[in-house]
Amino acid sequence: MKLPLLSLCFALLALASCGPDKKTARLSGKIEGLDQAALLIYPADAVEGDGGSLDSIKVNRGSFSYDRPTTVPLLLTLVYPNNSFTTIIAQPGKEVTLSGDANRLKEMEVVGTDENKQFTEFRLSVLKLSEKDAQMRAATYIRTHPESWTSVALLYHYFDRVASRSEQPTLSLLDLLKKHQPTNQQLAAIDARLRPQVRTAIGGFLPNFTATTLSQQTLRSADFKGQPTLLIFSASWDSHNYYLRQQLRKLKSARGNRLRIINFSLDESQQKAEERAKNDSLQSVVYLKNMLANPLVKTLGLRYPSGNILTNAQGRIIGRDLPTEELADKVNELLH
Fold first, then answer.
1. Residue pLDDT, tens place only, 146-161
2. Residue 237 main-chain phi, psi, to 5 deg
3. Taking the alpha carbons of 270, 275, 278, 280 in that order, is the dihedral positive or negative?
4. Nearest 10 degrees: CA dihedral of 207, 153, 146, 190?
C-alpha cells in the first residue's frame, strides 16, 4: 500500500510544479491557422511589481506559452500580426489559456480564471453591436460589478482602447471603480494616464498651462482664446515627422496668422529641437525636456508622439490626434 500512496504523492507534486509560481503569471494558447508568428504583449500601464515590459511571444505550429514575472495582478494586451488585440487579466500564480481561429481573432476565448471567463463572455456577447452600444452595456456591467477585475478590463477595453474617447461616462466609471478598488495598482495607473486624456477629448477645453518657447516667449493657454489654435507634438525620431512637416508648411502658407500653431518638440535634446526648428522653419517651438516623461505631456493628455489638438476661437477642442492627411481638411473646415 505504501508504493501506490508514494506514487500518488509524486504525481501530485509533479502536477503542482507544472503551474506558475506565485511570482509568475502564465499565458498559454493555441491559435488554429497560425503556424509561425510573433505576437506582442504589453501591460495596460506600468505598475510596481510587474517585472516585464513590451515582450514578444513566438508562436510555433499555432501554440505558445508565455511567463510574465509579476507579483501583482495586471492587464495585458496581446497584439496579433494584423494589429487586432485581446485584453487579458493576468494574475500571479495562475495560468490562463487562449484559444481560437486565426480567421476570427476577435472571437478568441480566454479561460483559466473566473474574471477572464466573464470578460470573454461579455466580449463575445457584444461582437455584433456598434461601439456605442457595446460601451453602454460595458458601463452597465461596471456599475453593477464595481468591485470586479472584469470591470477594470471592460473599462480599459471599451473606454480606453478606442480611437475616440469621451469625458463621460469614462470619468464617472473611473471614480466608481477607484472607490470600490482603492488598492488596485493597475486601475490607479490607468486612471493617472487616462483622466487627463479624456479631459482633453473633443468637446472639452484646454487645461490651464504655461510654457516657454525656444525664443523665450511665454505661452499661456488662457491667451489662446480668440484665435483657432493647433498644438502639434513631433520629434525627429518619429517616422511621421517628414510628412507632418510638409503639411504644416502648407497650412502656414495658406492660412497665415488666421491659425496659431504651437509646436511641442519631443526631441532627445534641446540642441536637436533647435536644429529642427531652424531647418523646418518652425515657429513657437516648446522643447519638452525628458520627452514623454515631461509633465506637460500628461497635462495635455498626449497619446501618440505625433499627436495634435485643434481648438476653435472659443478654446473648445474640435479635433484630437487627427491623422496628418486629415489635418488640412479639418483646419479648412474651421476657417472657411
1. 999 999 999 999 999 9
2. -85, -5
3. negative
4. -30
Q: In the structure grid, which three cell numbers stand for residue 70, read together?
A: 509579476
Residues in the chain: 336
Q: For the purposes of burial, counting CB atoms within 10 Å of the CB of 110, is it exposed (0-12), middle (13-18) or buried (19 or more)?
A: buried
Q: Which fold has domain 21-113?
A: Immunoglobulin-like (2.60.40)
Taking the C-alpha atoms of residue 179 and residue 224, their distance in angstroms, rounded to an integer, is 36
Which CATH number does the domain 210-334 belong to among 3.40.30.10, 3.40.5.10, 3.40.50.1240, 2.60.40.10?
Answer: 3.40.30.10
- Rounded CA gap, 167 and 333, in Å? 24
Which part of the chain has CATH 2.60.40? 21-113
Residues of the chain with CATH 3.40.30.10: 210-334
* Element (DSSP H or E) covering residue 32: strand 24-32
> Considering Cα of 131, then 84, then 232, then 211, what sign does the dihedral take?
positive
Question: 287: helix, coil or strand?
Answer: strand
Give, for 99, the enclosing helix (H) or strand (E): strand 95-101
State residue 6's pLDDT score.
53
pLDDT in tens, 200-219: 888 889 999 999 999 999 99
Q: Which residues have C-beta within 8 Å of that of residue 211, sequence separation ≥ 6?
A: 218, 219, 264, 286, 296
Q: How confident is the model at residue 4 (pLDDT cuts 50, 70, 90)?
A: low
Cell of 255: 492660412
